[in-house]
Amino acid sequence: MATIKEIAEKAGVSSATVSRVLNYDETLSVSEETKKRIFETAEKLNYSKFQKNKKAKQGKIAIVQWYTEKEELNDLYYLSIRLGVEKKAEEEGYEIVRLFQDSKAKLTAEIEGIIAIGKFSEREVAKLSEWTKNICFVDSNQLAHKLDSVEVDFEQAVTEVVNYFIQQQHEKIGFIGGQESYADHSAKITDKRQIIFEQLLKEKGLYHEEYIFLADSYHVSSGEKIMQEAIDQLKENLPTAFFVANDALAIGSLRTLQGNGISVPNDVCIMGFNDASVAKYVFPALSTVRVETELMGETAFELLMDRMATERTVAKKVTLSTDLIIRESTIRQ
């Protein structure tokens, strides 16, 4: 685990600034560029220190990110996947063209393939497919379109979370998720984690609809607001454990609980998802589901290279497992 001092030295800022940025301190006045540098440094320092020899320049590939550059800083899951792709591409000698949702850059004839990170509508998939069939999607399943994909095994991940809470004698288990739409606003997106969570709790006779809360985004501020709604609505009937759909929402939820004098973990346990670099720096340190985001990016790059080299038409989908990381936010005294 990289220390705050190491991140500060690499990013060229003070340790205090790093600490406040990683804890999403909204009172801190720093530029978006500084925040980006700190978050990227924190993610990169968690990656392997053993770099392969860089190869001669091979060509260009595009990374299409479904988020804007600013939104990416609020959900480090997608930032980390992108950095994983870029690390592998650099090792293999490929130049990267970054296309964010609000980017002015466009696909050009020099681009040989695309890695599309995030959620894409039918219309967006069709548009990218018109450009080239050399595409790999990360975090969405596009086998139906005969396109390569890399996904997380959400069923395994959520099952482990639910089983852990039950083993810890929790009977009142809540869920906090977010609401998203495709970038073209063609439809809303249903979170697979919520679907699996609800199904598992129904099977175990522990499901309560009033314990399900959906924020308006997956950002820290949304986590703060939605947890306050849960506290106001449920009062003394508040669940003793919450599974939260990403670490940013979990950090916001944790803050609100503490602000209301509710102890984490003694009164309420919080489990996040992603194991972003910030999870280990908050207090109490956040229990979470570790997703190997770097490996997701690397796998997507390898699938893209395979399709470009072989010109295969049969699509492949790679599903990666996750690990449950237990820290202080779920260990009751």
UniProtKB/TrEMBL annotation:
Keyword DNA-binding: yes
InterPro entries in UniProt: HTH_LacI, LacI/GalR-like_sensor, Lambda_DNA-bd_dom_sf, Peripla_BP_I
Annotated ranges, domain HTH lacI-type: 2-47
A single GO molecular function term of this UniProt record: DNA-binding transcription factor activity
Transmembrane segments: none
Keyword tags: DNA-binding, Transcription, Transcription regulation
Protein name: Transcriptional regulator, LacI family
